[in-house]
Amino acid sequence: WPRTSGRTDGTLTIGHVDVRDLAREHGTPLFVLDEHDVRARMRDYVTAFAGSDVHYAGKAFLCREIVRWLHDEGLGLDVASGGELAVALSVGFPPERITMHGNNKSVAELTRALEVGVGRIVVDSYEEIARLGHLAERHGKRPKVMIRVTTGVEAHTHEFIATAHDDQKFGLSLSAGAAAEAVRRILALPSLELVGLHSHIGSQIVDTAGFEVAARRLAGLLVQIKDEHGVVLPELDLGGGYGIAYVEDDEAPDVKEIADGLREIVTKVCEDAGLPVPRLTVEPGRAIVGPGGVTLYEVGTVKDVEGLRTYVSVDGGMSDNVRTALYGADYTVTLASRASTAEPMLSRVVGKHCESGDIVVRDCFLPSDLAPGDLLAVAATGAYCRSLASNYNYLPKPAVVAVADGAARVIVRGETEDDLLRGQL
Ligand code: LLP
Q1: Quick check: helix, strand or coil at residue 78?
Q2: Considering the domain boundaries, does residue 120 fall inside one?
Q3: Is the pTM of this model over 0.95?
Q4: Which of 61, 64, 174, 376 places its Cα 20 to 30 Å from the Cα of 161?
Q5: How high is the ipTM of this complex?
Q6: Has residue 197 been placed in a domain?
Q7: How far is the CA of 224 from the centre of ligand 1 (A)?
Q8: Where do runs of H (alpha helix) occur along 19-58?
C-alpha cells in the first residue's frame, strides 16, 4: 500500500483522502496515485544513485503531471515511442535528459528525436544504425547513441538464468559478436557519436545478481572496445527492472544495495583495465510508480459458486489491469469502504469483460458480508496498469487522480462515451 495510506474508522484513506469521497467524486474504476509516495521513490533513486543518472521508464505510466514530478525531482526520462516523447515535450521537459528506446523506431520517430535533440538514442539493430546515420547526415545532426547489448542474462520474474543464446527481439548479442560489430559500424559513421552501451535484462526482478552479471559483462565490453579501437566510451546505461512487492511476503530489492553493487562492479572492471569509470544511468519504471498506485473498484455482484469460491465482479477488469491475465500476476485486494468483522471467504475478483480469463485477483480472502456497492482497493497498480489499459468491450479508460495532504486532483481525465466514439466514421 502507498506510504500515506491508512484506515479511518475502517475506511481506507490514501494521502489522507477517504476512498469513498474519491469514488463519489470521480467514479470507479479509478486509479489513485499517492503523490508523496511516488515523489519519495523518485528521490530515493536519485539519492542512492548520486553521481549517476536516473531515467524514469515512462512505459510504466506516463502523463504530463508525472513528467512535471520528474523534472522537479531531478530525474531524466526513458521513452519507448514518439508518443511518449510527445507527452514529455508537451510540458517542456528538457530533451537532452531523454533517452529514446525501441527495437523498431520509425523514421518519423527518429527524425523527431533528431530535430528536438533527445539526449541519447539507443540503437537496437544494424538497420537502425544505418538508418539513423543517414537521417542524421541529412539533417546535419550528430546524435549521441548507445548500443543495446544483449548480455545473455535471461531474467525471469524472481530468478535469472544465464544463457549463451538470447532468443528474444531486443538488442545486439554480446556472445555472438553482434554488439562488437555494431560498435565497428557506428564508429565508421561520422554522423553518429557513440557514447556508451545499454542493457536491460528484464522486469520485476528481485534477485539483483542478474543485474550485476549484466553490468560486469557490459563493462567488459567497454574494455574490449578500448583494446580493439582505442576508444573509451564514457557511459553505461544499466536499464531498469527492479521488482516491487505485490503481495504479502514479496520481497523488493533495496535501491541503495542495487546502486552500491552496480557501482562497485563497474568500477572494479574498469579500474583493473586502466579505464576511467563510466557515468552510469539506470531506468527504473515500476519501482518508482508501482507501489504508490491503487485501483478502486465498486462491487457489482457477489456470486457463490457452490463448494468452490465466491466470484466478486467489479466494474473494471482486464481493460484497466491486464497483468493478471497476461502474466499471471498476483495482487493484494481489500474491502476499502468500511470495516468488516465477517468471516473471510475464498474469493476471486473478476472484471466485467466477456472473457472468463478477465481476472483481477485470482485468489484472495474477502469478508463474507461483501455486497454490491462496496469498494475494493487493489494495491500496487501504479505501474503497467493505466499504461497497458485498453478499450476492450468499449469500456472507457479510468481517470487517474493524484492525492496528497487530504486533497485529490485529476491528472488524467477518465474517458467518456464521446471519447470512445471519436474517430469512428
Ligand atoms: N528500460 C528499458 C529499456 C525497458 O525495456 C524497461 C521495461 C525499463 C527500463 C523499465 O523496467 P521496470 O523498471 O519498469 O521493470 N508490462 C510488463 C513490464 C514490461 C517492461 C518493459 N520494459 C509488466 O507489466 O510487468
Answers
A1: strand
A2: yes
A3: yes
A4: 61
A5: 0.99
A6: yes
A7: 28
A8: 19-26, 35-48
Is there a cis peptide before residue 29, judged by omega within 30 degrees of 0? yes
In this structure, the answer to whether residues 310 and 349 fall within a common structural domain is yes
Q: What single-letter amino acid sits at 404?
A: A
Judge if 148 and 276 occupy the same domain.
yes
Own/partner long-range contacts of 414-418 (Cβ < 8 Å, ≥24 apart): 414/26, 414/27, 414/30, 415/391
Measure the CA–CA gap between 300 and 344, rounded to whole angstroms.
19
Task: Give, in degrees to the nearest 5, the angle at Cα 255 between 250 and 260.
Answer: 130
Helix (H, G, I), strand (E, B), or coil: what is residue 43?
helix
DSSP secondary structure code for residue 398 in this structure: P
Q: Quick one: which of 124, 105, 50, 69 has its CA closest to 282? A: 50
**Does a structural domain hold residue 361?**
yes
Task: Give how far Cα 28 sits from Cα of 227, 299, 349, Å.
Answer: 59, 10, 15
Residue that terminates a domain, selected from 287, 311, 337: 287
Reference 273, options 238, 237, 233, 224; nearest CA is: 224
- Tell me: is residue 283 an annotated ligand-binding position: yes
Assess whether 276 and 304 both reside in one domain: no
- Cα–Cα distance for residue pair 132/128, rounded to 1 Å: 6
C-alpha closest to that of 262 among 244, 241, 282: 282
Q: Which atom of ligand 1 is nearest to the CA of 243?
A: 15
Residues in contact with ligand 1 (CB, 6 Å cut-off): 57, 59-60, 78, 101, 200, 203-204, 239-242, 283-287, 323, 327, 384, 388
pLDDT tens for 200-233 read: 999 999 989 999 999 999 999 999 999 999 999 9
What domain range is 145 assigned to? Answer: 49-287
Q: Which residues are catalytically annotated? A: 354
The preferred substitution site among 45, 55, 59 for testing ligand 1, maximizing ligand atoms within 8 Å of CB, is: 59
397-414 mean pLDDT: 98
**Distance, CA of 204 to CA of 421 (rounded, Å):** 36
Domain count, the chain: 2
Ligand 1 atom with the smallest distance to the CA of 148 is: 3
